[in-house]
Design goal:
mainly beta, AttH-like fold, eleven-stranded antiparallel β-sheet, eight-stranded antiparallel beta barrel, 19 strands, about 5% helix
Length: about 325
C-alpha cells in the first residue's frame, strides 16, 4: 500500500474514491480519461493505452506502439466510441480487447489489450501516493479538467508484437482526469513524467494559456514527495518541433534540485482535436546522475507546428 507519510504537504492526501469513475456534468466538453504509459528505450519503443468516457456515457480507447524498434509506421489500435453501462467502473473496465482493472485504492492495476497484431499484459504497482492538481492551492486549470491525477509505478509484464515477445520489468506512469477538456483554450504545454528506478519520480506540466504560464507537478525522491515550485527547461528540435534532446532543472518545495538530461528515442503524433497536435517523445534519461526513463508530451497548435516545419528551426 502507498504511504501518505511521505507527503511533504498533507493537503496532498487524496481520497481513494477518485481512483474510480466519476459522475460527469451535462457539458459537451466533459470527459474522463485514464492513460498508461510504458517506455522501453532499450527495445527502441514506447507505448500508451488511453481510454475515455464522455458525459453521454460513450467510451472509446486507443493504443499506440511506436519507435525505431517498431519501424517507420507505428502500430495504432483504436476502439470507436460506443455506449457503456453507467455501472461499469475502472475496477473492471472492458472495451472489446481492452480490459483495465484498477484496485480503486491508488495502489495496483492490470491492463490487458489483445488484438490480432499485439497483446499487452501489464501489472502496475504505485511507487508513491497519487498527486492531484486540485491539491495545489491554485487548483487544477479549469480548461484541462475538474481534477487530474498523476502517479508513477512499477510496470511488469509482457508485450507481444507478432512473433516478438518482450518481457519488461521497469517503471511506468499513469494519469487520470475528469471534467472539462477544452483543447482550444491552451496555446502550448510541456507535460513530463520521468523515473530513475522505483525510488525517484518527477512530474511537471507547464501550460501556456490566456496570457499566463501555469506550473504544476511533484518530485518524489529520498522517500519524500513535494510540490514542484520552479522548472528551467531547454530542448533541441528538428522538423515540426520534434524534440531530439531536452533537459530540465526542477526545484521543489523542500528546496531540493533535481536535474534531468534526456535523449529522445521514440516519437508519435497524437491528434485529439484537428486543431492541435500532441508530440509524444519517450527516451532514456539521466536523473541526478543516475539512469532512468523520461517522456515528454508537447502540445502545439497544428498550424504553428506546420509553419515551423516549413520555415525550419530559427
Amino acid at each position: 500500500m502507498i504511504d501518505n507519510k511521505v507527503l511533504a504537504d498533507q493537503r496532498l492526501i487524496l481520497d481513494p474514491v477518485h481512483d474510480g469513475r466519476h459522475a460527469l456534468r451535462a457539458d459537451p466538453k466533459a470527459r474522463e480519461s485514464v492513460p498508461y504509459l510504458l517506455n522501453l528505450p532499450e527495445e527502441g519503443l514506447a507505448l500508451f493505452t488511453y481510454t475515455w468516457v464522455n458525459q453521454a456515457g460513450e467510451a472509446g480507447a486507443v493504443m499506440a506502439i511506436f519507435g525505431p524498434g517498431i519501424g517507420p509506421e507505428p502500430i495504432v489500435e483504436k476502439l470507436a466510441d460506443r455506449p457503456t453501462s453507467a455501472d461499469m467502473n475502472f475496477s473492471d473496465w472492458r472495451l472489446e480487447g481492452l480490459h483495465m482493472e484498477q484496485d480503486l485504492r491508488f495502489d495496483k492495476a492490470r491492463i490487458r489489450w489483445k488484438t490480432d497484431k499485439v497483446e499487452l499484459d501489464m501489472n502496475f504497482e504505485a511507487m508513491h501516493p497519487p498527486y492531484a492538481y486540485g491539491s495545489d492551492e491554485r487548483g487544477c486549470m479549469p480548461y484541462t479538467a475538474d481534477n487530474r491525477i498523476e502517479q508513477s509505478g512499477r510496470a511488469v509484464g509482457t508485450l507481444r508484437i507478432g512473433d516478438r515477445v518482450i518481457a519488461f520489468n521497469t517503471t511506468g506512469h499513469r494519469d487520470h482526469s475528469w471534467g472539462t477538456r477544452d483543447w482550444h483554450a491552451t496555446q502550448h504545454w510541456k507535460w513530463v513524467q520521468a523515473q530513475s528506478g522505483p525510488d525517484v519520480s518527477v512530474h511537471f506540466w507547464i501550460v501556456e494559456a490566456m496570457g499566463r504560464t501555469e506550473l504544476r507537478g511533484y518530485v518524489f525522491k529520498r522517500g519524500r514527495m513535494a510540490l514542484v515550485t520552479d522548472v528551467d527547461f531547454h530542448f533541441d528540435y528538428v522538423g515540426k518541433l520534434d524534440a531530439q534532446r531536452w533537459s530540465a532543472t526542477v526545484t521543489d518545495a523542500d528546496q531540493r534540485v533535481t536535474t534531468l538530461d534526456v535523449e529522445v528515442v521514440s516519437r508519435f503524433q497524437l491528434y485529439p482535436d484537428p486543431a492541435c497536435c500532441l508530440n509524444e517523445h519517450a527516451g532514456s534519461a539521466v536523473i541526478d546522475g543516475k539512469p532512468g526513463v523520461a517522456w515528454i508530451e508537447m502540445m502545439w497548435p497544428d498550424a504553428y507546428r506546420n509553419h515551423i516545419g516549413e520555415v525550419g528551426p530559427y
